[in-house]
């Protein structure tokens, strides 16, 4: 990023830094959900197989923790470039063409679909909160509104990071310079 600062707006860079910093911090905080997830799974395995005393809460706790970790980590994954992309074609494109494709994709697909998902998931969360909806998956029957709140929160975090990614894409499209190179993630 340093070699191109002479052509970049300080306000643009500041906005990108603020949003990316926010995503880094929230991603770090969210990653701590893996600790209670691992503890819950370890407790359940120990209770079930060593003491023949399975719990009624472990299934609900683990799917809620894992689902939350997965959903809330999406914005961090977007920031780090960990989402799937067709690299076969992508690597052959110029930086400007990548900027065009990303800009159009964010405007036409990313933002409209996430805004729609945010609105729908907020309605689902709000209804679950109003009726104090409980799970019927297990005898534990935990309340579901905290888990349902994860979806609109994940949408909000993705939308915030999407603004940063859109600004970077527009800059790439206009200048042919990448503000941030995303490393290819091998699976």
UniProtKB/TrEMBL annotation:
<protein>
    <recommendedName>
        <fullName>TRAP transporter small permease protein</fullName>
    </recommendedName>
</protein>
<keyword id="KW-0813">Transport</keyword>
<dbReference type="GO" id="GO:0005886">
    <property type="term" value="C:plasma membrane"/>
</dbReference>
<feature type="transmembrane region" description="Helical">
    <location>
        <begin position="143"/>
        <end position="164"/>
    </location>
</feature>
<feature type="transmembrane region" description="Helical">
    <location>
        <begin position="57"/>
        <end position="78"/>
    </location>
</feature>
<dbReference type="InterPro" id="IPR007387">
    <property type="entry name" value="TRAP_DctQ"/>
</dbReference>
<feature type="transmembrane region" description="Helical">
    <location>
        <begin position="99"/>
        <end position="123"/>
    </location>
</feature>
<feature type="domain" description="Tripartite ATP-independent periplasmic transporters DctQ component">
    <location>
        <begin position="37"/>
        <end position="169"/>
    </location>
</feature>
<keyword id="KW-1133">Transmembrane helix</keyword>
<feature type="transmembrane region" description="Helical">
    <location>
        <begin position="29"/>
        <end position="51"/>
    </location>
</feature>
<dbReference type="Pfam" id="PF04290">
    <property type="entry name" value="DctQ"/>
</dbReference>
<keyword id="KW-1003">Cell membrane</keyword>
<comment type="similarity">
    <text>Belongs to the TRAP transporter small permease family.</text>
</comment>
<dbReference type="GO" id="GO:0022857">
    <property type="term" value="F:transmembrane transporter activity"/>
</dbReference>
<dbReference type="InterPro" id="IPR055348">
    <property type="entry name" value="DctQ"/>
</dbReference>
<comment type="function">
    <text>Part of the tripartite ATP-independent periplasmic (TRAP) transport system.</text>
</comment>
<keyword id="KW-0997">Cell inner membrane</keyword>
<comment type="subunit">
    <text>The complex comprises the extracytoplasmic solute receptor protein and the two transmembrane proteins.</text>
</comment>
<keyword id="KW-0812">Transmembrane</keyword>
<keyword id="KW-0472">Membrane</keyword>
